[in-house]
Amino acid sequence: MAFQITPYPEWSWSHSRDHLFQECPRRYYYHYYGSHNGWLRDASEEQREAYRLKQMANLFLIFGDALHQVADMYIRQWQSKSHLFSYTELHTKVRNMMNQAVLESKNVEQWMEAPKKRKMLVEWYYYNQLPKRIVEMIKERMETCLTNLLDSESLQEITTDPRVEILEMEKLNTIYVRGEKVYVKLDVLYRIGDRYIIADWKTGQEDDSIEEQLYLYAYYLHRELAVPLEQIEIRTEYLLPGECKKTYVTQANLEQVEEKIISSTTEMKSYLQDPVQNQPLARLDFEGAASSRSCMYCNYRQLCELKDRTLSDATDEATQADVG
């Protein structure tokens, strides 16, 4: 089907979309609506700007994405060539990705010409510097997370058990939950006999709030691929502490995730002027985050009227989002 230009984006739901909405409805507006069609030649200046700002990422997100890339690279290299990258090789790859992001961020004009093709760090764009404490923290995390990635139960199993069959890696899937279009993306899904294992890499601290995301993974396997619940094992590989948390899902959990999606969808759609077209209310109808800490490293600071709220309580921890 040919790509069609529409006045408003297509409606869909995802765990990350819900997370952004809960954190800050105003940021949610810019991300999904204000930036829509910002790549077109006849787009308004605000659309263009929102589209550019949407492409930025903070240091923690760039780092999390780099870890996911090398995990994916590691498994694919093993699959295709039966060769395993060393710790030093992976460390060099991650360091190069981080350095490239910093280098590209220093040329704002080139980034503005091709925001999808070049990196721009939020810290550099707004403050023209990288917080030393965060840089040092990421250097430490790089060593710890890479070591724990190589030692993780899932990666060890994938590369040592000849029965392992990789089914999916970083694939964006579409499912429907009570008529709502939902996106699901698994880091890696593999099978050993009649066991289906989902491994999810996390580069941040342990977080109980991700349970709904895990239930959604199981929902996808059970409802779309007809895998019995008792054969599904979800592993959250927390690379910072080096711990593997295993989750087994019940039918009640699937009903729970359904209810979550419907309640979240209902709340999001209350901000729509026309639900059929997915036309949003006016920008000012989307209130800002409850905490001003969210403003400090928000992509859309320069567009948002709320950016000048007091940031006296803001700290660098506001950037510690986990790319998941």
TrEMBL record:
<keyword id="KW-0347">Helicase</keyword>
<feature type="domain" description="PD-(D/E)XK endonuclease-like">
    <location>
        <begin position="12"/>
        <end position="305"/>
    </location>
</feature>
<dbReference type="Pfam" id="PF12705">
    <property type="entry name" value="PDDEXK_1"/>
</dbReference>
<keyword id="KW-0238">DNA-binding</keyword>
<dbReference type="InterPro" id="IPR038726">
    <property type="entry name" value="PDDEXK_AddAB-type"/>
</dbReference>
<keyword id="KW-0227">DNA damage</keyword>
<protein>
    <submittedName>
        <fullName>PD-(D/E)XK nuclease family protein</fullName>
    </submittedName>
</protein>
<keyword id="KW-0067">ATP-binding</keyword>
<dbReference type="InterPro" id="IPR011604">
    <property type="entry name" value="PDDEXK-like_dom_sf"/>
</dbReference>
<keyword id="KW-0547">Nucleotide-binding</keyword>
<keyword id="KW-0378">Hydrolase</keyword>
<keyword id="KW-0234">DNA repair</keyword>
<dbReference type="InterPro" id="IPR011335">
    <property type="entry name" value="Restrct_endonuc-II-like"/>
</dbReference>
